[in-house]
């Protein structure tokens, strides 16, 4: 089967194929460039995370399904179910629903996106665009013709944690490239993910940001390096978050110059991972253009006060990074 894209592009980017030990999946038909929007889909069904009883949940899904056109009902019923039995609709939802945003309690089921298998080192990013009410899939590195298209269903913790999460929430044992690494390499990957988590926690400490901003900025630098190594140089949305953290540290201390560079970098990553029409992408662009519009401008101090025009010129790449992250 060769689906056509619904966004006006007439080149079929992928086909649906059987993938060994994973059921169906999407495979690239042609080479796909980083940042390409591969899919953009409306939900078939949306799901609140909490229902009072399993029967309530099943009845709710049945009612939503009944209201759909016949073709959509067939699409929903053809989706994989790791938990068939007494509550078939709930089983399909549990196997397939993706959250509508990173911390949303609402999930959604899609006709084609739900055929994309998981990888702990995915080549695509999935994101919910609340403006358009659609889920989008973007390539976060070049994908070769014949390669499987993958997304991460989880948020990338150490192997034991994410594997347990995938088992409990999606009902499968992950066989992706990262989970199949030899023991020593898996341990190294886990150590990097532990470090990523520890750095992220340290950067999120507001009192440290106020009292030791240079340390926080250096943690952002270390976090970005760890992400690059762990995710094989892919453009991951976690890097956009790290740049936005760096932006917030600088702007809280009055430095519009560094803040504008960090927001510009966060913007460019969001364009790749989510597209120009994502609200978060647009938010980063507005901060790149006017960092002082951020509500925390100067909230900690004006100790780093520097206008946007004071971004240094004529430095080589290494010198610029040293300036940007206050390495000296
Ligand atoms: C959302 S569905 C993806 C499409 C599915 N393969 C199909 O045939 O319709 C999720 C299911 O795909 C399989 N799957 C996805 N990613 C996998 C992975 N990394 N390792 C093993 N199985 C995977 C599991 O059976 C999982 O429950």
UniProtKB/TrEMBL annotation:
Source species: Westerdykella ornata
Superkingdom assignment: Eukaryota
Residues spanning the signal sequence: none
Record PROSITE patterns: SET (PS50280)
InterPro entries for this protein: SET_dom (IPR001214), SET_dom_sf (IPR046341), SET_domain_protein (IPR053185), TPR-like_helical_dom_sf (IPR011990)
Name of this chain's protein: SET domain-containing protein
Ranges for domain SET: 12-154
């Amino acid at each position: 089967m060769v689906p056509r894209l619904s966004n006006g592009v007439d080149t079929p980017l992928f086909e649906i194929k059987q993938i060994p030990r994973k059921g169906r999946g999407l495979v690239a038909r042609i080479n796909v460039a980083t940042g390409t929007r591969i899919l953009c889909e409306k939900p078939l069904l949306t799901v609140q995370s909490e229902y009072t009883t399993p029967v309530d949940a099943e009845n709710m899904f049945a009612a939503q399904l009944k209201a759909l056109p016949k073709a959509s009902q067939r699409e929903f019923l053809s989706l994989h179910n790791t938990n068939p039995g007494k509550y078939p609709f709930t089983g399909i939802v549990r196997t397939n629903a993706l959250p509508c945003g990173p911390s949303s309690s609402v999930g959604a089921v899609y006709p084609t996106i739900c055929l994309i298998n998981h990888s702990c080192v995915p080549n695509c990013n999935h994101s919910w665009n609340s403006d358009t009410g659609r889920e989008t899939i973007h390539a976060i590195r070049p994908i070769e013709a014949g390669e499987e298209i993958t997304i991460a269903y989880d948020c990338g913790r150490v192997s034991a944690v994410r594997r347990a999460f995938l088992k409990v929430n999606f009902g499968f044992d992950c066989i992706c490239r990262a989970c199949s690494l030899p023991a020593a390499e898996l341990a190294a990957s886990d150590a990097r993910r532990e470090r990523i988590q520890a750095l992220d926690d340290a950067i999120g400490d507001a009192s440290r940001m106020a009292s030791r901003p240079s340390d926080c900025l250096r943690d952002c630098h270390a976090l970005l390096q760890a992400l690059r190594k762990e995710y094989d140089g892919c453009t991951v949305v976690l890097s956009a978050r790290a740049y936005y953290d760096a932006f917030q540290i600088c702007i809280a201390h009055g430095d519009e110059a560094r803040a504008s560079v960090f927001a510009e970098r966060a913007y460019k990553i969001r364009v790749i991972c989510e597209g120009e029409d994502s609200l978060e992408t647009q938010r980063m662009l507005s901060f790149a253009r006017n960092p002082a519009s951020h509500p925390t401008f100067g909230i900690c101090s004006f100790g780093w006060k520097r206008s946007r025009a004071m971004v240094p010129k004529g430095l080589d790449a290494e010198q610029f990074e040293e300036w940007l992250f206050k390495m000296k």
